[in-house]
Amino acid sequence: MLKTTVGWTLMFRVKNGDKAKKELRRVEELLGTPLCLGVCEQYWKIPEQWTCNAEMQFEAPSIAEQITRCLLLANRLAIGWHVLGPYLQADGTVQTFSGIFDGHHPGAKLASLEWAQFELVPSAASLP
């Protein structure tokens, strides 16, 4: 099994940090899995937006399953992602795979979601 980490950057149009964290709980519900919250702060350029960084982990039997699961998770948050990759290393493992969602597309499942990014960062080691 391949241990995989997906990093998320989510930008919400909300009034304060408490409401941003409430939206993160809604994201967890949509994804069906808990997130490990990193930084959640007011966006310096646009004060009415909050940027939250979070990670989640899962195990997958193959690289194809890693990529598929990542896409299916992103689809739970929004439709209309711009996907980059996957870029594979010489040994066939994923070097990087990412996607960006621009909130101007009408496909967000949360009205407050203005912008989002995911990046699949697989662990170098496999799980037994």
Primary descriptors:
alpha+beta, 128 residues, Alpha-Beta Plaits, six-stranded antiparallel sheet
Task: Tell me what you see in this structure.
This protein has 128 residues and is of the alpha+beta class. The chain has one domain (2-126): Alpha-Beta Plaits (2-Layer Sandwich), CATH 3.30.70. It is 23% helix and 48% strand. It is built from 2 helices and 6 strands. The chain has helices at 17-31, 63-77, and strands at residues 2-13, 36-42, 49-60, 82-88, 94-102, 113-126. It has a 6-stranded antiparallel sheet. The radius of gyration is 15 Å and the shape is elongated. The model has no long low-confidence stretch (mean pLDDT 90).
- In round numbers, the mean pLDDT is 90
| Total E-strand runs | 6
The structure class reads: alpha+beta
H and E string: EHEEHEEE
Low-confidence stretches: none
Largest sheet: 6 strands, antiparallel
In short:
The chain is an alpha+beta fold and 128 residues long. It has helices at 17-31, 63-77; strands at 2-13, 36-42, 49-60, 82-88, 94-102, 113-126. A hairpin with a 5-residue loop joins strand 4 and strand 5 (94-102).
Topology record:
Blueprint: E1 2-13, H1 17-31, E2 36-42, E3 49-60, H2 63-77, E4 82-88, E5 94-102, E6 113-126
Antiparallel strand pairs: 1-3, 1-6, 2-3, 4-5, 5-6
